[in-house]
Amino acid sequence: MLIDGSTALVVGGASGLGAATVRALSERGAQVVIADVDVERGEALAGELGARFVTADVTDAEQLAGAVGAAAALAGGLRVCVQCAGIGHAERIARSRGPHELSSFERVMAINVVGTFNVLRLAAMAMRSNDPAGEDGERGVCVTTASIAAYDGQVGQVAYAASKGAVAAMTLPAARELAGSAIRVCAIAPGLFDTPLLAGLPADARQQLAASIPFPPRLGRPEEFARLACEIVANPMLNGEVIRLDGALRMAPR
User: Fold this and answer.
1) Per-residue pLDDT tens for 69-108?
2) Is residue 16 exposed (0-12), middle (13-18) or buried (19+ Cβ within 10 Å)?
3) Given 115, 139, 143, 160, which residue is catalytic?
């Protein structure tokens, strides 16, 4: 899919991996719509880049449909959708004070799994009506965000690992189903990245995390995630794949 001139929707695009992806797509000539619950950051980024911001919670079907509709209404229709919205969570299954809270598990699944599927279903529906483009007749590309926790979940990560495992698992069946509509689906499974999720940790903790990565021995940079997202969009043979982006990291149990 040619990025230059295409309309892209980045969900969770106000900060972190999403904001880097917004910048990368804009730099490559895409017309970008940012969807996020963080209005202040989203509007600031949109104003800086000449993009458009729409308030949208991935668990709110009506809000998200509005964001997808705003992108689909632009010239050429919605061609690229990158879903970066999600939350982390740490809690043990059985603790001295009692079992894992069911409500917290449900919240993680609602945002990370149901939210991702909500983005995918609405974006794919909008893309189906696009005119075929390029020599392969593509109508659209959807990129979701899993995590290496889907494979290497640590102690206390049962909710997060389960949610990201679900995102990884839906990738291939979604790609197979949407192939008939000339829509590709891939997921990126990042490792430890320098995002707001890790920014609150003490400096020594961040250094220890960075040192655990074989090579390069540092935290990933959001722009590296964004670069891969753009390559997925641009390379028509990338389809149905979950791509680890982790510097060969395999997380230990703790």
Assistant:
1) 999 999 999 999 999 999 999 999 999 999 999 999 999 9
2) buried
3) 160
Q: What is the CATH number of the domain that holds 84?
A: 3.40.50.720
pTM, rounded to two decimals: 0.96
Residue 146 lies in a domain: yes
**Residue 136 structural domain:** 7-195+221-244
Would you call 160 a catalytic residue per the annotation?
Answer: yes
Closest CA to 55 of 95, 23, 28, 85: 85
Reported as type and span, the H/E element at residue 10 is: strand 7-11
For position 120, what pLDDT does the model report? 98
One-letter amino acid for residue 225 of the chain: F
**Predicted local confidence at residue 159, as pLDDT:** 96
253 lies in a domain? Answer: no
Within-domain flag for 79: yes
CA distances from 5 to 132, 181, 228 (A): 15, 21, 19
Instruction: Band the pLDDT of 200: cuts 50, 70, 90.
Output: low
pLDDT confidence of residue 203: 77
* Number of structural domains the chain divides into: 1
